[in-house]
Design a protein that fits this description.
The protein is α/β, with parallel strands linked by helices. The chain is built from eleven helices and ten strands. An eight-stranded parallel beta sheet has the order 3-4-5-6-7-8-9-10. A two-stranded antiparallel ribbon has the order 1-2. Helix 3 links the parallel strand 5 and strand 6. Helix 1 crosses helix 2 and helix 2 packs across helix 3.
């Protein structure tokens, strides 16, 4: 497994990590035994970076990752969590020092650690990214030993660029995949220049880029791929990357046709992300040990050839760009 530096944290992490949203909620039921088996399978496959959040299953995901830490006792594992989505209402005024510390305390309890490796603001209101008071509080919290570093998770390119300009932001988490290419234009170059990590999320477009879905595929009622297709619960860009399902299915079929022998379509899609200069780690989710192992194996694929890259670019330009490029 290749490792890269996680921006201003200075820590080395596996280039393929594990996103742990699925193990908390919003993707259908995953039993505790299956969740722990998935976490251990990822670690056994060389994954050292685990991304979670305090709202995934109302803390369930953090608690499960905390069990992984205790059961393995592996100092090389790096856990990033997020805070801010517990704010109700989710408004800039909620990001006070008192609330930030309360959210931080809860995550430390859930994970069973005194100091969190990396804490990310969880797609806060846009105004927060320009609020010096919030980032002064985060600096103070690092000094207090509550966390080693902080970053941000963003929805838009503009939010990412504002965050990268801040001197102590260690990482930016952003949607990046074959169907969401806009961050390649400005965000990744700016992050490289500033030494800020890029954590690429939603790399499989909520499963579209596995190539396994067709127009008749349905999802459980408690799966965001059912209830958030029009952004009813949170930003629609988090579900199928904001691409209409029927369009995504059709494009995914064409992506699948480009898959090299011995690989899966999901592995091709993950390798595409890994190949992008400036990406520190990509965080596909998994609901089973088999998925976790297959995702990790994508790091062993050869970089995609120029012909494949050009065909993927054309698919985006001709079928997807007008639907998503100017929205985020």
């Amino acid at each position: 497994m290749e490792h890269r530096i996680l921006g201003r944290t200075g820590r080395e992490v596996s280039v393929v990590g594990l996103g742990c949203w699925q193990l908390g909620a919003d993707w259908g039921a995953v039993s505790e035994d299956d969740a722990l088996a998935t976490l251990h399978a990822a670690a056994d496959a060389g994954v050292t970076f685990f991304d979670t959040a305090d709202v995934y299953g109302d803390g369930r995901s953090e608690q499960l990752v905390g069990r992984l830490l205790r059961e393995r006792g592996d100092a090389d594992l790096v856990v990033a969590t997020k805070m801010g989505r517990r704010a109700d209402p989710h408004v800039p005024e909620a990001f006070t020092g008192e609330n930030l510390r309360a959210w931080n305390d809860r995550s430390r309890r859930n994970l069973g650690v005194d100091t969190l490796d990396l804490v990310q603001l969880h797609c806060p209101p846009t105004a927060v990214f320009s609020d010096d008071r919030v980032f002064d509080e985060l600096d103070t919290m690092v000094d207090e030993g509550r966390m080693r570093a902080y970053g941000v998770s963003v929805e838009t390119v503009d939010e990412a660029l504002t965050a990268i300009a801040r001197p102590h932001v260690a990482s930016v988490q952003i949607i990046l995949n074959i169907l969401r290419r806009k961050p390649l234009e400005q965000v990744l170059p700016a992050a490289r220049e500033a030494g800020v990590a890029i954590i690429a999320r939603v790399p499989l477009a909520s499963g579209l880029l596995t190539g396994k879905y067709d127009e008749h595929t349905t999802f459980a009622a408690d799966d965001h791929r059912s209830y958030n297709r029009s952004g009813e619960a949170f930003d629609v860009g988090e579900t199928f990357s904001g691409v209409p399902f029927d369009v995504g299915v059709a494009v995914a079929r064409e992506v699948a046709a480009l898959t090299p022998d011995g690989a899966t379509t999901a592995q091709l899609a993950l390798r595409w992300v890994v190949d992008q200069s400036g990406v520190s780690t990509v965080i596909p989710g998994a609901r089973s040990p088999e998925q976790a192992r297959a995702n990790a194996a994508s790091a062993s694929l050869a970089p995609l050839d120029d012909d494949t890259l050009e065909k993927l670019r054309r698919l985006y330009d001709e079928q997807v760009r007008d639907l998503v490029h100017d929205r985020w």
